[in-house]
Target: SRPBCC family protein
Amino acid sequence: MTYGGGRQQESENAIYAHSAAVDLEIAATPEDLFDALDDPTRLGRHMRKPSLMMLGGWMRYRLDEGQGRAIGSGIRMDGRFAFLGLAVDEVVIERRRPFRKVWETRGRPRLLVIGDYRMGFDIAPAGEGSHLHVFIDYDDPGTSLGRFAGSLLGPIYARWCVRRIAEDAADLAKSPKAGI
Model:
């Protein structure tokens, strides 16, 4: 697993101040890997259960009729982190099965250590499996407390998040029950 980050990324309408990325080779076809990661509830399973990184917090997913699997489809997450209420709305902005999916925040996210973000993954064939690249480009939160917390914890959280998605994808590839 290799890590990247620290560079500025530009999307169609936004420049983000920070980024983190991870690359991993996975023993699954690009099609099977994409299908597993295309489900936001599977992609974000590390957020749905309490963990040390979430300080015992969790996030719940609410999907629109597109189930987060179509351009323009909405994904809402809300939950708790260190006893604070969190919420974020996302929308899928790019989806090219089996190679790429990108989503970004809409509105004003209520998050503690990162603010607006764009996140996604790229998949390329690699030998008998796939090369997975997971990334997040993000800004600090908009509040004074958020900017302080974000400067200290944002990079740690962003690296944890992309690493967990990549590791979860590798675990899904090993599990015949998971559909890969």
The first strand starts at residue 2 and ends at 5. The two ends are 20 Å apart (CA to CA).
